[in-house]
Amino acid sequence: MKAVATIHDDDFLYEQIAARFERQVKEGLLKPGDKLLSVRALSREQGISISTAYKAYVELENMGIIEARPKSGYYVKFSPSRFSKSPAVKPPLTSTGQTTIAEMIATVYQHMPEESVLKLSRASPAMELIPLAKLNKSMIEAIRKSPSGNSNYEHLQGNISLRNQIAKNAFNWGGNITGDDVVTTQGCMEALVFCLRAVTKPGDTIAIESPTYFGIFNVMLSLDLKVLEIPVSPEIGLDIDYLEQAMDKVDVKACLFVTNFSNPVGSCLPDERKKQLVTLLTQKQVPLIEDDIYGEIYFGKTRPHTCKSFDREGWVMLCSSVSKSLAPGYRVGWCIPGRFKEQILNVKMMHTISSATPTQAAIAHFFEAGRYDLHMRNLRRALYTQCLRYMQGIAAHFPPDAKVSRPQGGYALWIELDKSINAFELYKAAMQHNISIAPGQIFSTDGRFTNFIRISFGMPYDDLVDKSFMVLGGLIKALQFCAEI
Amino acid sequence: MKAVATIHDDDFLYEQIAARFERQVKEGLLKPGDKLLSVRALSREQGISISTAYKAYVELENMGIIEARPKSGYYVKFSPSRFSKSPAVKPPLTSTGQTTIAEMIATVYQHMPEESVLKLSRASPAMELIPLAKLNKSMIEAIRKSPSGNSNYEHLQGNISLRNQIAKNAFNWGGNITGDDVVTTQGCMEALVFCLRAVTKPGDTIAIESPTYFGIFNVMLSLDLKVLEIPVSPEIGLDIDYLEQAMDKVDVKACLFVTNFSNPVGSCLPDERKKQLVTLLTQKQVPLIEDDIYGEIYFGKTRPHTCKSFDREGWVMLCSSVSKSLAPGYRVGWCIPGRFKEQILNVKMMHTISSATPTQAAIAHFFEAGRYDLHMRNLRRALYTQCLRYMQGIAAHFPPDAKVSRPQGGYALWIELDKSINAFELYKAAMQHNISIAPGQIFSTDGRFTNFIRISFGMPYDDLVDKSFMVLGGLIKALQFCAEI
Fold this sequence. Notes:
The structure is a homodimer.
Chain A: H1 7-26, H2 39-46, H3 50-62, E1 66-69, E2 73-76, H4 101-110, E3 118-119, H5 132-145, H6 160-169, E4 183-186, H7 187-199, E5 205-210, H8 214-222, E6 226-233, E7 237-238, H9 240-249, E8 252-257, H10 271-284, E9 288-291, E10 316-321, E11 332-336, H11 341-352, H12 357-368, H13 371-397, E12 403-404, E13 412-416, H14 423-431, E14 435-436, E15 438-439, E16 452-456, H15 463-484
Parallel strand pairs in A: 3-14, 5-6, 5-8, 8-9, 9-10
Antiparallel strand pairs in A: 1-2, 4-11, 6-7, 10-11, 12-13, 13-16, 15-16
Helix pairs in contact in A: 1-3, 2-3, 3-15, 5-12, 6-12, 7-8, 7-11, 13-15
């Protein structure tokens, strides 16, 4: 006769039972489509509590091995990719309750370079969208052009040809600048870090969007900055009135906003509201760090303006890079720091001496050879198509109550699922199928977007993506079902 | 009749007079070797004070136009490079008294990439010493080898081939590590910043050497860290007893030392003392950030050990790069962070996402192709020869009381001049001849090394360097003479 399980034994028990089922499926004793015992029957059969039986099934669902069909019961699932990978490289199945947001981010992004994982969590262009042959040609020509093969230290402010090209392109967003206004950096992330270091000190409060790219509040934490989260909606973008009222109460030392196609929401602040924001911050003499990394990825007729284009007194520090448009791995970014140029140069000198010479020279050459404009036209067209296809795929495979953002640019769909869904659990279950999505929790400091996920449409919508959507839809339905019973 | 000049007019007057002489020299009215009026005679002739007359001559000396010959008077100097450049690109002649150390550093290094300046201030290999053809070949082959042309994000920890090669090379300094112990960075400077960010918080005190590379205390200031300067002598290196005593009084959170061929002094901590240092810090559980950037540039028979090689408990974080050995502009560096690996990866993720892919791949290829060992043998031989030639040149042209360090590796000579010499004034005077030296002031937080200069022997000793030494020697003698009268 079995003793009543203690909580500890209980944990052990449900895992044991789940493992046993897993083995049976693996060995073909249970086949896709087989119906399992009901929770109650399993409880009776094994002499375990109903709660332990439930937990065993939920675990199996999270692992993608079984599925719950509403008002019918549990079935062994069909999943072609199920056993294609050894479990050793999977993220550990820890409880969400004990997982900090930093740990979630690390979990989500540590598997990024693995070839076998379908990266729906990565907001950057797929290999197919990068003009690789031309980029390589630019690298090789830049080496040949330079008497030093680009092996020497670059100027602290950055490659002059690249800076001039960035200034030339600024025309598209309404900018009237010269190459001397630009400082190059190692990607947009370093530009943001330099801006923050230039205008803040530890303990300062910075206003950011909510939800926002986790990298942004991560760097805030790392620089000992406090964050004030300003709501952003898919429709109207940043809530400037909320910001203004908050600034009366809190001493905000700087703002850091993604004004065009904010990540993950995808909203674009209209020109009038950009002007309003710049006027407000200029009047209060508060620097605006404008992350414009998605600005070039617009689906409309014209490139949206930036706040920088309305900046008369130099309070806007625009940051961007080629990571979303051309070559993430080149780590070529820049900053147009307005009145804070000297501070930025100081921080850059102290932290890195100079940015890498060959990569800057290659991107400068790519621009100068006139390869950028054509590439961007192609890229935008491809991404817009992919965006629409992804939305269709979600409509076809996700539960009908899933709400999807309608981005006008950028790389990401922001999806609200049923309130019962824990997105990090969904992430873990999806990873069992080698599908990586970005759980909503990592887009705020307090993990509040528990039932949201971000899906990036950087990859062409092919069969693999379609199947993944089927799997994801199934997992969401299963999780939803579990929560209901 | 002239009125007695006020202080303001006086400033104006000596500049006017100096400018008149300059014009006369330029127009050939005064020729090299011509003797000028004595200070007293000039004062009488122009109806100006003796002090104004002195100032005019000192200004002309600083500009390198005239020279003072002891017990003889002032003469027009011969200097072939005198008028080869327009003055617009020269650093402004501000008074040292009002120049902060940060400003001095900025002044010294802002002209670095200019082709026309002879860079005796740059501690890195001259173009002639870089195996450019092979390096370019490695870059091109690395692009061809990669299906993504190295355009994609690299793994957070860094290129795996590169990390394995770094681990393999570690054998030479007594290291027993694998590629998994290595994290790549954007040059050694970023590695140091990551280490500091990983183990300190603002307000902490860090022990550093004195004198030390200005970049090190610069980054301390930028991270709001306090520094405790530990003396280092050319003979015995770091004063570990001083450190131990200081640590009893001050709460030192970390140490940052250049253990091999410290910059600028060039000393190398003997193995026994390295062991002693590691034992001390391990016992006190204080991390040692070991900057080993010059370790490969040894003139003796074997590569010196590192503190890391005596580190049993992971308290040593070794930082290095290829900037001094292969390609400064590639910005490829690394860190071997011992027990702090997770913290370093966190900081790296928050600040840069990943290091540039193409440059890491190219350096990895260079190593793998077996090109590194041969190159380093050649480089070391060339640098040792240059070091000796530079010392000869200094002996030939500098005043006999100049004391020169005898480095056993690295790139720099540390030269003590007569106490009356202000090295930053010497720097400014030398820049008039397009010669850039590093003034001693920038190697401590309080500018205490006022009569020291650092001269780097990265460039082959050719006629141009020889002539520059002649010019420098003349300037030093002139400054010394001025101080005496």
